[in-house]
């Protein structure tokens, strides 16, 4: 089953829980927040900038629903880390809607945002602790430390996984939450082997709860090693892995199922199926890295 992106929207106001983002997943699932934005409707909609007791009965539900033509402002700076922190790894969360001054043409749009949208995945069997022996397939797969988000790394464990795309696609890794621990030096790291290239990420690459792309591979197969030599319990990670090419299915294998070489060599791969038409984009990792 292909993992589906979910969205939750709610308007700014003071009428109670209707003015809170309340995304949720089924029991046993983990939430991975991949986007947060504040949006403003067009003036022509007559939507209010704030839902109040006096206007709630006459405000259409569409004022709080997403439309691609709305003015959208992404929440990507540290002021909004709490939204990600409260939801990632949980089955649900409740967050009060806030507003921002509109950056779009204010002769067309409301002068401030009137609702928010949170985008997320609900993960069940698409990922797990890499120190477990398991293998899973999906268009997107995930890695998290054992017990995330309530428990940290133990301080003395090394685990490994492999990721292989089913077709001619490279692999992209996004840090949903990366908080590797340190004492006098960074004592935890994520080491990626990508063909002849070996690259290490550590506490200097922590993302402050804000989702960031931190690596894009050069091939369809990579190995991932989680190294924990910190010496005490600390450090967390929650990582989204997906194919760069549309239609790629990924196989994530960890523990005893981890592969050293791909099951299908790159020269024998087929083109990825086109599930929908997309425009080509350039992906730039946000983090620096250390080659070892």
Automatic annotation (TrEMBL):
It comes from the Eukaryota. It comes from Mytilus coruscus. This is SUEL-type lectin domain-containing protein.
């Amino acid at each position: 089953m292909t993992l589906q992106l979910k969205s939750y929207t709610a308007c700014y106001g003071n009428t109670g829980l209707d003015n809170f983002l309340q995304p949720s997943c089924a029991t046993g699932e983990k939430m991975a927040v991949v986007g947060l934005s504040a949006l403003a409707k067009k003036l022509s909609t007559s939507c209010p900038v704030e839902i109040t007791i006096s206007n709630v009965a006459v405000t259409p539900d569409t004022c709080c629903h997403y439309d691609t033509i709305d003015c959208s402002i992404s929440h990507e700076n540290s002021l909004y880390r709490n939204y990600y922190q409260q939801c990632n790894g949980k089955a649900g969360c409740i967050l009060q809607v806030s507003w921002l001054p509109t950056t779009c043409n204010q002769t067309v749009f409301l002068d401030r945002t009137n609702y928010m949208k949170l985008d997320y995945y609900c993960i069940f069997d698409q990922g797990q602790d890499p120190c477990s022996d398991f293998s899973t397939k999906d268009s997107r797969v995930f890695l998290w430390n054992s017990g995330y988000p309530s428990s940290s790394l133990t301080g003395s464990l090394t685990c490994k996984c492999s990721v292989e795309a089913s077709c001619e696609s490279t692999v992209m890794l996004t840090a949903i939450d990366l908080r590797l621990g340190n004492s006098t030096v960074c004592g935890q790291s994520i080491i990626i082997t990508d063909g002849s290239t070996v690259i290490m990420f550590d506490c200097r690459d922590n993302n402050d709860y804000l989702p960031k792309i931190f690596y894009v591979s050069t091939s369809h197969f990579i190995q991932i090693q989680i190294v924990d030599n910190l010496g005490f319990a600390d450090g967390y990670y929650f990582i989204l892995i997906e194919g760069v090419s549309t239609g790629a299915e990924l196989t994530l294998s960890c523990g005893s199922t981890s592969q050293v070489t791909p099951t299908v060599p790159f020269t024998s791969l087929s083109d990825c199926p086109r599930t929908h038409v997309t425009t080509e984009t350039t992906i730039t990792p946000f983090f620096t890295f250390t080659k070892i």
